Amino acid sequence: MSPRGVLAWLYRPGPITGLALLVGWFAIYFSYRDSWTGVALALATTLGAYVAIKRGRALGQLRRTKMAAAIAAAAARNRELDLLRRLGSILLSVRSSKELLDEVVQLAGNLLQTQGSAILLVVEEGRFLKLVAGSGLLRAATDSLLPVDRSLAGWTVQNDQSLISDDMGKDPRNFPVEMLPSNLERGMCVPLRSSGVVIGAACAYNRIDGRPFDEHDVALLGALSEQVAVGLDRATMLEDTRRNERELAEKNRELVRVTKLKDEFLANMSHELRTPLNAIIGFSDLLLMPESGVLDEQQRDFLESIARNGRHLLGLINNVLDLSKIEAGRMTVHLTRLDLRDAIQGAVTDTTSLRSAKRQSVSIEVGEDLLIIVADHIRVRQILFNLLSNASKFTPEDGTVSLSAIRTPVPLPVPAERAGEKSRLVSRDAVWVSIRDSGIGIRPEDMGKLFQVFSQVDSSASRQQQGTGLGLALCKQFVEMHGGTIGAESIFGGGSTFWFILPIEGPIRQPG
Length: 512
Ligand SMILES: Nc1ncnc2c1ncn2[C@@H]1O[C@H](COP(=O)(O)OP(=O)(O)OP(=O)(O)O)[C@@H](O)[C@H]1O
Ligand SMILES: [Mg+2]
Known about the structure:
The chain is an alpha+beta fold and 512 residues long. The chain has eleven helices and 13 strands. A hairpin with a 2-residue loop joins β5 and β6. α8 crosses α10. The site of magnesium ion has 5 residues, from α10.
């Protein structure tokens, strides 16, 4: 501490100054009694105290001014923090990039106390910058294009560096353009980066108090622009998602329309095809009746072929129609009590000609129990017919087909009672029907696609069996509509077993 400082400290207002005054007053008292030295000492001491008080006042004033400046700086930092915090909520709440950019330029203006601020993005393969959002003086310039090589923002983008310009008019990096207001004097730009790539710049112009921009301002604008890039990515992602959703919804509507058209087309076509086909089959059958008696051997053969192929075609059309009904959700089951024995017997009879053509034998093994079930008898017949005809189709001549049916409790899937819950397995009384053949079998890798629409294990043109690959897919749908389940086991080259399970009491209906 200097001697002046020591003096100031000694004579600052307080107990020491008080002590000095006391000494002075004692000196005066003693001076009256003894000598004039006391008077001189008293005067000097009082003067010293007076100087100290003056000096102390000046120091206090200085300290108050410093304190006020510190409080003002703290208030400014608080404001900045508040505004940056607001930026966080803006980033989370905005729904489009346009909205985000507009909010951010406004915020940048408030944060840096400027007459204008702007966000510019690189466009036209990097040749121009588009002023996508502007506030204050720059608002009117929104959507303007600035050349990258003759603008402050362009310099920032090209050099990936922040800049401060205290006199934009004379700055060689800048070229006054008519799109921007002419009264821009001081400017500052920071790069905007997305995933490490410069995509534009954030700029602020003319501080309201006329001061030049400093490094603190650059740091603030830099913090702001980092957040903007994150927000832009998020907003762009949101916009992409919404656009995709809209496109998907549009495609969905189109799909529904096309599906409806397809259903109508199929319904009309199958009606148009079935009518003449029924006539062909009906008249062929009539001619084949022994009473008609007009056919020789060859004519009978030809006619039988016509009727057989006609029936095949009719079956095919019916399958396609059933499938389109299922896909349109219009397939319903008409439940009645039916004796499964009768259905089995009927299907075995219907497929006799297939087996007899290949000299295949059939065995039926049905347990003692009652096999009365609640089901749609047409669909049950269809399931049995397709499995029995597959067994014959894919079994060579002289092979065997055996069917067995028993009643047994089985764990079956029961639909969930409330939305969002999973279906659970419940043990129910059921019939288990299996159809085994000694046929060609199925490779393990082909088992997974058996019940898919149009899937045939061997779909090559060289395959010998007729068919479209719809039968098993339909069987699966029909079985599941009854609350049952279907499956298969096979040994390639050693035959196959197809089985299905139907609950005795039919499907469980959901209330409502
Ligand atoms: N018992 C079986 N033995 C061997 N392969 C079989 C057997 N049953 C079905 N497949 C295979 O599964 C495929 C699908 O059978 P599916 O009944 O769905 O169609 P399809 O019989 O070819 O034609 P569709 O039944 O529509 O007339 C068959 O093409 C066949 O390759
Ligand atoms: Mg089939």
